[in-house]
Design brief:
This protein is mainly alpha-helical and 263 residues long. The protein contains ten helices and six strands; from the N terminus they run αααααβαββααββααβ. A hairpin with a 5-residue loop joins β4 and β5.
Length: 263
Protein backbone atom coordinates (compact mmCIF):
# COMPACT_ATOMS: atom_id res chain seq x y z
CA UNK A 1 0.00 0.00 0.00
CA UNK A 2 1.21 3.50 -0.79
CA UNK A 3 1.98 5.79 2.12
CA UNK A 4 2.42 9.56 2.21
CA UNK A 5 6.03 10.65 1.83
CA UNK A 6 5.88 12.78 4.95
CA UNK A 7 9.53 12.06 5.74
CA UNK A 8 10.67 13.58 2.44
CA UNK A 9 11.45 17.26 2.94
CA UNK A 10 12.46 18.79 -0.41
CA UNK A 11 15.09 21.48 -0.59
CA UNK A 12 13.20 24.36 -2.18
CA UNK A 13 16.53 25.98 -3.08
CA UNK A 14 17.47 23.00 -5.27
CA UNK A 15 19.99 24.16 -7.87
CA UNK A 16 20.56 20.89 -9.63
CA UNK A 17 20.07 21.63 -13.33
CA UNK A 18 18.18 18.37 -13.80
CA UNK A 19 15.23 19.62 -11.75
CA UNK A 20 14.65 22.18 -14.49
CA UNK A 21 13.45 19.31 -16.65
CA UNK A 22 10.41 19.20 -14.33
CA UNK A 23 9.25 22.58 -15.61
CA UNK A 24 6.03 21.14 -17.06
CA UNK A 25 5.43 19.17 -13.86
CA UNK A 26 5.66 22.45 -11.94
CA UNK A 27 3.23 24.02 -14.42
CA UNK A 28 0.64 21.34 -13.70
CA UNK A 29 1.11 21.66 -9.93
CA UNK A 30 1.02 25.47 -10.00
CA UNK A 31 -2.16 25.45 -12.09
CA UNK A 32 -3.88 23.37 -9.42
CA UNK A 33 -2.73 25.73 -6.63
CA UNK A 34 -2.66 22.86 -4.13
CA UNK A 35 0.34 20.93 -5.37
CA UNK A 36 3.28 22.92 -4.05
CA UNK A 37 5.36 19.87 -3.16
CA UNK A 38 4.07 17.55 -5.89
CA UNK A 39 7.02 18.14 -8.27
CA UNK A 40 9.58 17.42 -5.54
CA UNK A 41 7.81 14.24 -4.47
CA UNK A 42 7.58 13.20 -8.09
CA UNK A 43 11.27 13.92 -8.73
CA UNK A 44 12.24 11.89 -5.64
CA UNK A 45 10.10 8.96 -6.78
CA UNK A 46 11.33 9.19 -10.38
CA UNK A 47 15.01 9.31 -9.39
CA UNK A 48 14.68 6.44 -6.93
CA UNK A 49 12.77 4.20 -9.35
CA UNK A 50 9.65 4.15 -7.18
CA UNK A 51 7.27 4.70 -10.10
CA UNK A 52 6.16 1.53 -11.89
CA UNK A 53 4.92 2.74 -15.26
CA UNK A 54 4.05 0.23 -18.02
CA UNK A 55 5.51 2.25 -20.90
CA UNK A 56 9.02 3.35 -21.77
CA UNK A 57 10.66 6.57 -22.82
CA UNK A 58 11.76 4.80 -25.99
CA UNK A 59 8.13 4.02 -26.91
CA UNK A 60 7.24 7.64 -26.20
CA UNK A 61 10.03 9.04 -28.38
CA UNK A 62 9.23 6.64 -31.21
CA UNK A 63 5.55 7.59 -31.34
CA UNK A 64 5.68 9.83 -34.41
CA UNK A 65 2.13 11.13 -34.05
CA UNK A 66 2.67 12.32 -30.48
CA UNK A 67 6.16 13.75 -31.04
CA UNK A 68 5.11 15.56 -34.22
CA UNK A 69 2.25 17.28 -32.37
CA UNK A 70 4.49 18.25 -29.44
CA UNK A 71 7.13 19.66 -31.76
CA UNK A 72 4.44 21.41 -33.79
CA UNK A 73 3.29 23.22 -30.64
CA UNK A 74 6.90 24.06 -29.85
CA UNK A 75 6.95 22.00 -26.66
CA UNK A 76 10.06 20.53 -25.06
CA UNK A 77 9.88 16.76 -25.59
CA UNK A 78 12.14 15.90 -22.63
CA UNK A 79 10.10 18.03 -20.23
CA UNK A 80 6.87 16.62 -21.61
CA UNK A 81 8.09 13.07 -21.00
CA UNK A 82 8.43 13.83 -17.29
CA UNK A 83 4.98 15.42 -17.28
CA UNK A 84 3.54 12.21 -18.76
CA UNK A 85 5.16 10.06 -16.05
CA UNK A 86 4.01 12.49 -13.34
CA UNK A 87 0.41 12.47 -14.56
CA UNK A 88 0.47 8.67 -14.74
CA UNK A 89 1.85 8.35 -11.20
CA UNK A 90 -0.67 10.83 -9.80
CA UNK A 91 -3.55 9.20 -11.69
CA UNK A 92 -2.80 5.69 -10.42
CA UNK A 93 -2.37 6.85 -6.82
CA UNK A 94 -5.57 8.88 -7.04
CA UNK A 95 -7.74 5.74 -7.17
CA UNK A 96 -5.58 3.03 -5.55
CA UNK A 97 -4.91 2.90 -1.79
CA UNK A 98 -6.38 6.37 -1.55
CA UNK A 99 -8.58 8.26 0.87
CA UNK A 100 -12.19 8.79 -0.21
CA UNK A 101 -13.56 12.07 1.13
CA UNK A 102 -17.00 13.58 0.91
CA UNK A 103 -17.74 16.57 3.14
CA UNK A 104 -21.29 17.45 4.28
CA UNK A 105 -21.18 20.35 1.84
CA UNK A 106 -20.33 17.99 -1.03
CA UNK A 107 -23.21 15.65 -0.16
CA UNK A 108 -25.74 18.47 0.17
CA UNK A 109 -24.62 20.04 -3.09
CA UNK A 110 -24.99 16.72 -4.91
CA UNK A 111 -28.56 16.34 -3.65
CA UNK A 112 -29.51 19.92 -4.59
CA UNK A 113 -28.04 19.50 -8.08
CA UNK A 114 -29.92 16.22 -8.46
CA UNK A 115 -33.38 17.51 -7.47
CA UNK A 116 -33.05 20.95 -9.11
CA UNK A 117 -36.26 22.92 -8.60
CA UNK A 118 -38.13 19.76 -7.60
CA UNK A 119 -40.53 19.70 -10.55
CA UNK A 120 -39.89 15.98 -11.12
CA UNK A 121 -39.26 15.08 -7.51
CA UNK A 122 -41.38 12.41 -5.82
CA UNK A 123 -41.33 12.21 -2.01
CA UNK A 124 -42.98 9.49 0.06
CA UNK A 125 -43.13 9.17 3.84
CA UNK A 126 -43.30 5.78 5.50
CA UNK A 127 -43.75 4.94 9.17
CA UNK A 128 -43.42 1.52 10.69
CA UNK A 129 -46.76 -0.22 10.85
CA UNK A 130 -48.54 2.48 8.87
CA UNK A 131 -49.41 3.02 5.22
CA UNK A 132 -47.04 5.29 3.28
CA UNK A 133 -48.09 8.81 2.33
CA UNK A 134 -47.10 10.76 -0.78
CA UNK A 135 -46.03 14.37 -0.21
CA UNK A 136 -48.18 16.90 -2.04
CA UNK A 137 -46.82 19.81 -4.09
CA UNK A 138 -46.74 22.31 -1.22
CA UNK A 139 -44.74 19.95 1.02
CA UNK A 140 -42.30 19.19 -1.79
CA UNK A 141 -41.72 22.89 -2.36
CA UNK A 142 -40.99 23.44 1.34
CA UNK A 143 -38.52 20.53 1.40
CA UNK A 144 -36.75 21.61 -1.79
CA UNK A 145 -36.48 25.23 -0.59
CA UNK A 146 -35.18 24.08 2.80
CA UNK A 147 -32.44 22.00 1.19
CA UNK A 148 -31.32 24.82 -1.11
CA UNK A 149 -31.38 27.31 1.78
CA UNK A 150 -29.33 24.89 3.87
CA UNK A 151 -26.78 24.60 1.05
CA UNK A 152 -26.37 28.37 0.90
CA UNK A 153 -25.96 28.56 4.69
CA UNK A 154 -23.32 25.82 4.62
CA UNK A 155 -21.43 27.56 1.82
CA UNK A 156 -21.41 30.82 3.74
CA UNK A 157 -20.51 29.30 7.11
CA UNK A 158 -18.04 26.64 5.95
CA UNK A 159 -16.47 27.69 2.63
CA UNK A 160 -13.56 25.33 3.25
CA UNK A 161 -14.04 22.18 5.27
CA UNK A 162 -10.85 21.08 6.99
CA UNK A 163 -10.15 17.43 6.27
CA UNK A 164 -7.77 15.66 8.64
CA UNK A 165 -5.76 13.10 6.70
CA UNK A 166 -4.98 9.88 8.54
CA UNK A 167 -2.45 7.65 6.78
CA UNK A 168 -4.16 4.56 8.20
CA UNK A 169 -7.26 5.42 6.16
CA UNK A 170 -5.54 5.36 2.76
CA UNK A 171 -7.09 2.01 1.97
CA UNK A 172 -9.78 2.76 -0.61
CA UNK A 173 -9.42 1.24 -4.07
CA UNK A 174 -11.96 1.30 -6.88
CA UNK A 175 -12.88 -1.46 -9.30
CA UNK A 176 -13.32 -0.78 -13.02
CA UNK A 177 -11.55 2.56 -12.66
CA UNK A 178 -10.10 3.01 -16.15
CA UNK A 179 -12.71 5.62 -17.02
CA UNK A 180 -12.02 7.50 -13.76
CA UNK A 181 -8.32 7.39 -14.56
CA UNK A 182 -8.78 8.61 -18.12
CA UNK A 183 -10.93 11.54 -16.98
CA UNK A 184 -8.48 12.56 -14.26
CA UNK A 185 -5.43 12.27 -16.52
CA UNK A 186 -7.21 14.23 -19.25
CA UNK A 187 -7.90 17.10 -16.85
CA UNK A 188 -4.24 17.21 -15.79
CA UNK A 189 -3.09 17.40 -19.42
CA UNK A 190 -5.65 20.16 -19.99
CA UNK A 191 -4.23 21.99 -16.96
CA UNK A 192 -0.79 21.82 -18.54
CA UNK A 193 -2.01 23.05 -21.92
CA UNK A 194 -3.88 25.92 -20.26
CA UNK A 195 -0.81 26.87 -18.22
CA UNK A 196 1.34 26.81 -21.37
CA UNK A 197 -1.36 28.79 -23.20
CA UNK A 198 -1.45 26.51 -26.18
CA UNK A 199 -3.73 27.85 -28.92
CA UNK A 200 -7.27 26.53 -28.80
CA UNK A 201 -7.80 26.40 -32.55
CA UNK A 202 -7.72 22.86 -33.91
CA UNK A 203 -5.86 22.56 -37.18
CA UNK A 204 -3.85 20.11 -39.24
CA UNK A 205 -0.83 20.92 -41.35
CA UNK A 206 2.31 19.34 -42.75
CA UNK A 207 5.70 19.78 -41.10
CA UNK A 208 9.08 20.22 -42.79
CA UNK A 209 9.14 16.53 -43.69
CA UNK A 210 5.67 16.86 -45.23
CA UNK A 211 4.11 14.69 -42.52
CA UNK A 212 0.54 15.53 -41.64
CA UNK A 213 0.56 16.90 -38.09
CA UNK A 214 -2.55 17.03 -35.92
CA UNK A 215 -3.01 20.05 -33.66
CA UNK A 216 -6.07 18.55 -31.99
CA UNK A 217 -5.13 18.64 -28.30
CA UNK A 218 -7.83 16.16 -27.28
CA UNK A 219 -6.56 13.70 -29.90
CA UNK A 220 -3.06 14.19 -28.49
CA UNK A 221 -4.39 13.34 -25.02
CA UNK A 222 -6.23 10.32 -26.44
CA UNK A 223 -2.98 9.04 -27.96
CA UNK A 224 -1.12 9.66 -24.71
CA UNK A 225 -3.72 7.69 -22.74
CA UNK A 226 -3.20 4.76 -25.11
CA UNK A 227 0.58 5.07 -24.75
CA UNK A 228 0.20 5.14 -20.94
CA UNK A 229 -2.03 2.03 -21.16
CA UNK A 230 -4.88 3.79 -19.44
CA UNK A 231 -6.83 3.13 -22.65
CA UNK A 232 -6.68 -0.23 -24.40
CA UNK A 233 -8.91 0.48 -27.41
CA UNK A 234 -6.80 1.19 -30.52
CA UNK A 235 -9.38 3.76 -31.63
CA UNK A 236 -7.76 6.12 -29.14
CA UNK A 237 -4.76 6.33 -31.48
CA UNK A 238 -6.77 7.59 -34.43
CA UNK A 239 -9.71 9.59 -33.09
CA UNK A 240 -10.77 11.56 -30.02
CA UNK A 241 -14.40 10.40 -30.25
CA UNK A 242 -14.02 7.56 -27.73
CA UNK A 243 -12.45 9.91 -25.21
CA UNK A 244 -15.15 12.51 -25.79
CA UNK A 245 -17.78 9.88 -25.01
CA UNK A 246 -16.09 8.90 -21.75
CA UNK A 247 -15.65 12.52 -20.63
CA UNK A 248 -19.33 13.20 -21.31
CA UNK A 249 -20.56 10.04 -19.59
CA UNK A 250 -18.46 10.53 -16.45
CA UNK A 251 -18.76 14.28 -16.06
CA UNK A 252 -19.44 15.03 -12.40
CA UNK A 253 -19.18 11.33 -11.46
CA UNK A 254 -15.51 11.04 -10.52
CA UNK A 255 -15.18 10.22 -6.80
CA UNK A 256 -13.39 12.79 -4.67
CA UNK A 257 -10.25 11.19 -3.28
CA UNK A 258 -6.87 12.06 -1.84
CA UNK A 259 -3.77 10.33 -3.13
CA UNK A 260 -1.47 8.90 -0.48
CA UNK A 261 1.46 10.31 -2.45
CA UNK A 262 0.15 13.56 -3.95
CA UNK A 263 -2.15 14.73 -1.17
Amino acid sequence: MSTPIDSYNPNLEEEDAQIELCDYVFQIADYREDGEFHPYRFWYRYCTGAINYPFTKEHFLKNDDIIATLEGFGLDVEKFWLAVVFIFDWTISKFHDCLSVKTPLDSLQEICEYIGNGDKLAISFRMKGRKGKEADLSVKRIIVKSLHDALERERAANPNYVVVLDSDRFTTSYDNILCYQMCFATERFKDLFASLRLPSKVKTRADSSQREVSYNKLLLISRLLYLMRLASNENFKYSDESLKGILKSYKGKIPKTYSAIYL
